[in-house]
Amino acid sequence: MRLPRRRFLAGSLAAGAIASPIAIVRGQPLSFAADPFTLGVASGSPREDGVVLWTRLAPRPLEGGGMSDSPVAVDWQIAEDEKFARVVAQGTEQATPALAHAVHAEAKGLRPGRHYWYRFRAGNALSPIGRTRTAPAADSTPSQFRFAFASCQQYEQGYFSAYRDMAKRDLDLVVHLGDYIYEKSWGSRLVRRHEVGIPTTLSEFRDRYALYKLDPDLQAAHAAFPWLTTWDDHEVADDYANDRSYTTPDPIQFTKMRAAAYQAYYEHLPLPPSARPRGPFATIYERYRFGDMLDVMLLDDRQYRSPPACVGAGRPATVRHCPERMLEERSMLGSQQEQWLDRQIATAKARWTIVAQQTLMAELARPEEGGHRFWMDGWDGYPNARRRLLESIAAHKPRNPVVIGGDRHAFFVADLKRDFGQAREPVLASEVVGTSITSQGPSAASMQQALEANPQLKYGRGDKRGYATVDLTAARCTVGFEGVDDEKQKDSAVHRIATFVVEDGVTGAEPA
Ligand code: FE
Ligand code: CA
Q1: Ligand 1: centre distance to CA 153 (Å)
Q2: pLDDT higher than threshold 70 for residue 13
Q3: Which residue among 29, 66, 199, 334 has the highest number of C-beta atoms inside a 10 angstrom radius?
Q4: Coil, strand, or helix at residue 94?
């Protein structure tokens, strides 16, 4: 969906002020010589009575934004119609240099389960219009709920055609499961370049987000639907865990970098103000309810996890003998989030219980002579944390638990069990993993080996980029794997490559 752009006409664009993107003339409204809404608009954290509206003023997006050191008043409006004839809420937020002149406005007093349109104004500039949707009322019974989930959008490795396709769909929500930016350049056959090196400072992280957010297809998907987002590793550093990073071994230095990275993440996504980082800490895990149709538990498995097992200060690897990984106290979510999740699972009442987390949860063993290898950066590096999560599901029996994930740059369908080695163990939850938007996938040989050695993996495909759609009704959850024809081509088409179904009351996805 492409939304028309309307310009605010009162006050002339300062044609003479080419040297500076902003001209402030005493007694006149702030006048931008260059469009400050280059990064588009977004909405997120939909509740039944409200939604967060986002934008950032950045007339020179790749040079630190191009704003002065002063705060700027940004007006916002949200309406029941695209022409803003029925404005139902409005307000003014101060866009401050401390947050890169980003705005996170909380629109409240909205009605549940309906579309709204929103826009911003700063001085003489008017933003593009975004569309959003509130959550259905808690006590309501929607007949259908549709969302897409995505992850892993390495900018250099392909165009964001997946988002152009997504934006055209009729969706209630988009869930992003991490690797929204990549800190480093890698991969083969790059189609565009970061042009600069690995960000470590706040201003460098801001410019990296700005580069990604300048993409019109990504902007279109943000402007069309409310998003829920969580981060994975590449928003900070490859395969980091808590305060450990093989790329920045000094924990004090790394923690400073994490603070910069978390802040830039907050500044560029439609997160609620409650998620604003305090130093290197930010609470982004949260529960979202959508009528009696679904409950979403959105997790953060990076910030609190135990250090990777058996690799010392080195890069998490695929390790064979590793008694350390079996330690009971090892945690993926941290004890506080783990207890929180147990309480949410215990009180889940919707027909579908979606656990939205970063990566493949099912075991993926690499068999070889004398034992199995496991990848220490994924849940296989934290098997007891995974067992506790699945035991929480087994104990509380929420309706239709479905785990969704990303990170692997491949589509997977899996059965989640307490003991993956036991064919007769009951399936405790269904799992679907979406492929990357652009990031290159695993080799055909490694996918084939993974599928042959792991019967809990019922489907796997690593050669396609794209995203997943989820169509929920009372009767079933239909998952579509949407594949981009060629991410190296601009405006490539998207085609459904596989469809799986979870029937109400039956655990485990099956081919449709
Ligand atoms: Fe990734
Ligand atoms: Ca990742």
Answers
A1: 7
A2: no
A3: 199
A4: strand
Residues 6+ apart with CB under 8 A from 370: 320
- Return the pLDDT at 21: 60
At CA 302, angle to CA 299 and CA 304, rounded to 5? 90
Ligand nearest to the CA of 357: 2
Q: Which residue has the tokens 């006409």?
A: 9
Give the type of residue at 8: F
Q: What tokens were used for 215?
A: 């993409």
Gap from CA of 160 to ligand 1 centroid (Å): 14
pTM score of the predicted model = 0.95
At 352, list the tokens. 């579908």
More confident call, 5 vs 61: 61
Distance from Cα 408 to the centre of ligand 1, integer Å? 7
H/E segment holding residue 266 = helix 251-268
What is the number of the ligand closest to the CA of 236?
A: 2
Would you say residue 257 has pLDDT above 90?
yes
Other CB atoms within a 10 A radius of the CB of residue 251 amount to 13
Q: CB burial class (10 A; 0-12, 13-18, 19+) of residue 287?
A: middle
Q: How far apart are CA 176 and CA 236, in angstroms?
A: 16
Whole-number mean pLDDT of the chain? 94
Does residue 177 contact residue 230 with C-beta atoms inside 8 Å?
yes
Q: What is d(CA 186, CA 43) in angstroms, rounded to the nearest whole number? A: 30
Report CA(407)–ligand 1 centroid distance (Å): 5
User: Ligand 1 mean position to 229 CA, how many Å?
Assistant: 14
SS3 at position 218: helix
- pLDDT-based confidence at residue 430 (cuts at 50, 70, 90): very high
CA–centroid distance, 178 to ligand 1, in Å, is: 7
Residues present in the chain in total: 512
Residue range 443-466: mean pLDDT, rounded: 97
Beta strands in 380-475 (DSSP E): 401-405, 411-416, 429-433, 457-461, 466-472
For the segment 109-118, the average pLDDT, to the nearest whole number, is 98
Contact of 221 with 166, CB cutoff 8 Å: yes
Under 8 Å between Cβ of 500 and 486:
no
Of 447, 484, 483, the residue nearest 462 (C-alpha): 447
C-alpha span between 212 and 233 (Å, rounded)? 16
Q: What is the pLDDT of residue 30?
A: 85
| Mean pLDDT on 428-434 | 98
Element of type H or E holding 139: none
Dist CA 469 CA 174 (whole Å): 9
180 alpha carbon, closest ligand: 1
User: Whose atoms come closest to the Cα of 409: which ligand?
Assistant: 1
Ligand nearest to the CA of 316: 2
Q: Nearest ligand to the C-alpha of residue 239?
A: 2
Q: How many angstroms is it from 160 CA to the middle of ligand 2? A: 18
Q: How many CB atoms lie within 10 A of CB 330?
A: 18
Q: Distance from the CA of 353 to the center of ligand 1, in angstroms?
A: 25
Residue 420 DSSP class: T
Q: Say if residue 6's pLDDT is above 60.
A: no
